[in-house]
Every structure is written in C-alpha cells, then in structure tokens.
Amino acid sequence: MKKASPYLLVLPILLAACSSSKTYFTAGIRSRVEANQQPLEKIQFYSDRDIILRRELETGETKVTAGKVKIENGHYINIITLPKNTPGVCTVVKSNVVGISFEAGDNHYLTFGKTKNAQANDPYRILANEWVNDYGVINYDGKKYHIQPEGTEAAILIKTKMLKKHRVEEREMKGRKVSEANTVLNTGK
Asked: Residue 40, SS3?
C-alpha cells in the first residue's frame, strides 16, 4: 500500500487559504444586499479585468481630461486605461443597472448590468450604448469612447466578506387560535 504524499495532505489547506476574497456582483447578490438594507453606494466594487477606452480626437480639440494621447497614422487618439482590480464606487442605481465610478467627476462612470439573456447568477457586465463590430460605444465624461475588445466582457466584483456580514433573518408566523386569544385575555385581568 502506498503512503500519501505529505504535499497532498497540505494541498486542500492551501486551496482553502487561496480562495478568492472577491465575488462577482450578480442580480442574486444585489437582491441579497438590498434585502439587508445595504445601500449600493456603500459597497466597494472592483473591475475584474483591464478595460481600455479609446476615442479619436476631433480636429481642433485640445482639451483631454483623462488618459493619454497617442498619435496613430496622423490621428490623435485619447486612451483611458482601467486596470484590473481598480476600486470603484456606485454612483448610479437603476433597475438591473449600476454606474460604477473609478475616478472622481461628473459623468465619470461605467455602466454595468444584466445583459439580455443573463441568469440570476450571471455577473453584471459592462454595458454599451451601441455595439460596432467587437467594440462597445459608451459615453464617458460627455464624449464617445470605444471599449476595446478585451474589455467588452468586463464585470464587477465585490468583497466576499461583505456578504458574510449581513444576513436576512426569516421566520414564519404560526398563527393563533381563538381559544388561545381568549385565554390570554382572561388571564390579563
């Protein structure tokens, strides 16, 4: 009979220790959070991957409020990068949609929500105003940007421990019978 390797005995412990501290924000999780009276604006959100926004600057446009400007084939391109795990806050709350702001300022948020065929356990994904080929077109800071293909499936995460702090307590009323009510009334004199 072979003896189990000591490494195999330690593996389950390591896997449990390395389990993710974040979970995807889904419609089901949103329901749990809202049932606990937890405002979405008080939850820390995170991007699950890099998101790159690009737009071509119009002729004569000189003001760029965020990102970098690159010259590609004689065109000025404004690029804004949102790295994976960047923290953000909820600034817009609508039915099945949230606006997550990763930097300060008006209209500085990305919209995430349930996609067309999403199930309750599917994560809230980045939403675009329209789709052109593999690029989502969004309004950010009052300007139209294209979400680069690597970010079109981006979703948002929240810390798992936030879900463990809040629990919904439920109970079922058993009902009362007339004979029990009369007994309580008679002894209350």
From this structure: helix
Segments making up each domain of the chain, as ranges: 20-167
- How is residue 149 written in tokens? 């293909």
Q: Hey, which of 11-15, 36-40, 66-70 has the most confident mean pLDDT?
A: 36-40
For the entire predicted model, the pTM comes to: 0.71
> Which tokens go with 28?
């089901």
Tokens describing residue 21: 């501290």
- Give the lowest-confidence range in 12-16, 45-49, 113-117, 185-189: 12-16
Instruction: Using the CB atoms, write b or e for 171-183: b if 16+ within 10 Å.
Output: eeeeeeeeeeeee
Gyration radius of the chain over CA positions: 25
Measuring CA to CA, which residue among 134, 127, 133 is closest to residue 155?
Answer: 127
